[in-house]
Amino acid sequence: MNKLALINEFLGQPANASEHGYQIDHILEFCHWFMGALFIGWLIFFFFVLVRYHRSRHPVADHAGVTSGISTHLEFAVVLIEAVLLVGFALPLWAKRVNQFPETRDAILVHAVGQQFNWTFHLPGPDGVFGRRDVNLVTASNQLGLDANDPAAKDDIVVPGELHVPVDRSVIIELSSKDVIHNFCLPHMRIAQDAIPGSIIPMWFKPIKAGTYEVICGQLCGLGHYSMKGSVVVDTPQDYEAWLKERGEMAAQSAAAPPPMQRPAGEPAPGPSPATVPPPGAPPAGSQPSPSASPG
Ligand SMILES: [Cu+2]
Description:
By secondary structure, the protein is α+β, with helices and mostly antiparallel strands. The protein has 4 helices and 10 strands. It folds into 2 domains: 3-55 and 70-99; 108-256, Immunoglobulin-like, CATH 2.60.40. Helix content is 29%, strand content 20%. The protein has a 5-stranded mixed β-sheet. The chain has a 5-stranded mixed β-sheet with strand order 4-10-9-6-7. Copper (II) ion is lined by residues 114, 182, 217, 219, 221, 225, 228.
């Protein structure tokens, strides 16, 4: 790392672990140094003006003002540098991110679904086809509403919180959300994208360093937002295959297990509910026979 890049480290940027990340880092470095120079420049100018135009030196206002063109030149230079940064560097880099996706046959394709307050990952399994998902099928044990009757869903892998990907291979993540707007932010990969209910939004990156990296939610999505974390584990190809195999076996086992018992529609939940427990001091319900007065 060169000395100039230390400003990113100083500002808390974690070490880059993606192929394109150095380009983002260069722009960040330049912007921070440029803003630092502007800050110091304006600060010097501010104190110069405070001293130079103090009331004791100029008791009467000068209505002619400044006649030199230096401020115009300085402001034009600042606008020019900002325009070059935006049009010359930032926009092309952003366009490459959103328009030039890797070929799907070379990349790992994963669905990531955000909900208050966790991430769930959906992989297509050995057949390479994602099973159908239906919001009406969502239950506590089927967080994504995967359709068990869809043959393509039989081998699908659903993992909460932790996604594994192989190193040196592009990863395309298609994002969606079950409730509010979340943001899938991977600071080490220099990538973030909103997850919006009703939309499927793709993002991609290519990890170049094995390790475990934190996923955070980059949108204030509710009271538990602070705890909406996950992780992306970048494995060697062998470790990734082993993880995929293990997860595939677990998915096959859970698919073969009988479905959990479900109450018939309309049947109330077991145990007292707010509707069946009288509030303290309330007269006993007349229409309901008490247990001691059972007919017999
Ligand atoms: Cu969130």
